[in-house]
């Protein structure tokens, strides 16, 4: 969405400022279990909230689900996060409505989003690759059958698959969730604070690191268990 770009840029600048003030803040936070980062930015009537959370805080693990129970936990967590009202409560007087939201995670060694078009495009590209490989295969078969048989052995890509598995395992150890809620508010001046239900939803989280950037405020806050109010 076009409106999201300046807001996201504002968040980046704000977080960079906080990070500079607290050296290594974001790098250190990236994989600290029990700590979740929330970025909140407001520009006019637009409000953007971003959450970055360790996988273990959300589902209890940071790797690809390896059982039906873990798969259910993942699906349940995504379902909770896909509803912004489950996570945040905004003053009704502000008239804020969710215009865009996204939930993604890296528990499978790569980013998985709730956007089905993303998966479709990936499958489409894969099919095109397969068709191209098939055409080359056919051409080689007509040109030289013996060379084709040798090529078949190569097409197994066993070494490459092993390499991918290695990257997959390395990345799994730092699996995390990224969530974004983009609101349009009819009266943003009525929004003085935001209530969060994060601790109730995901009780293993010990603290929330909150970066706030609004038309009148720039601050870095920390909420401990029991704290639910984010002042704007």
From TrEMBL:
<dbReference type="InterPro" id="IPR021253">
    <property type="entry name" value="ZrgA-like"/>
</dbReference>
<feature type="compositionally biased region" description="Basic and acidic residues">
    <location>
        <begin position="117"/>
        <end position="174"/>
    </location>
</feature>
<dbReference type="Pfam" id="PF10986">
    <property type="entry name" value="ZrgA"/>
</dbReference>
<keyword id="KW-0175">Coiled coil</keyword>
<feature type="coiled-coil region">
    <location>
        <begin position="67"/>
        <end position="94"/>
    </location>
</feature>
<feature type="region of interest" description="Disordered">
    <location>
        <begin position="101"/>
        <end position="175"/>
    </location>
</feature>
<protein>
    <submittedName>
        <fullName>Zinc-binding protein</fullName>
    </submittedName>
</protein>
């Amino acid at each position: 969405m076009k409106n999201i770009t300046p807001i996201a840029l504002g968040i980046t600048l704000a977080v960079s400022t906080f990070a500079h003030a607290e050296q290594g803040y974001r790098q250190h936070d990236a994989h600290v279990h029990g700590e979740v980062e929330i970025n909140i930015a407001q520009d006019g009537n637009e409000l953007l909230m971003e959450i970055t959370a360790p996988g273990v805080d959300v589902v209890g693990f940071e790797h690809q689900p390896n059982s039906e129970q873990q798969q259910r936990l993942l699906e349940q967590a995504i379902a909770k996060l896909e509803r912004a009202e489950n996570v945040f409560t905004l003053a009704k007087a502000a008239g804020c409505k969710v215009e865009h939201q996204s939930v993604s995670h890296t528990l499978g060694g790569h980013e998985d989003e709730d956007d089905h078009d993303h998966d479709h495009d990936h499958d489409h590209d894969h099919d095109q690759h397969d068709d191209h490989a098939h055409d080359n295969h056919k051409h080689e078969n007509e040109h030289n059958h013996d060379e084709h048989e040798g090529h078949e052995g190569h097409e197994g890509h066993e070494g490459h698959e092993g390499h991918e598995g290695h990257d997959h395992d390395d990345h799994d150890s730092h699996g995390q969730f990224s969530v974004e809620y983009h609101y349009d508010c009819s009266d943003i001046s009525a929004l003085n604070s935001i209530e969060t239900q994060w601790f109730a939803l995901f009780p293993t989280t010990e603290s929330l690191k909150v970066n706030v950037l609004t038309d009148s405020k720039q601050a870095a806050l920390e909420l401990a268990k029991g704290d639910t109010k984010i002042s704007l």
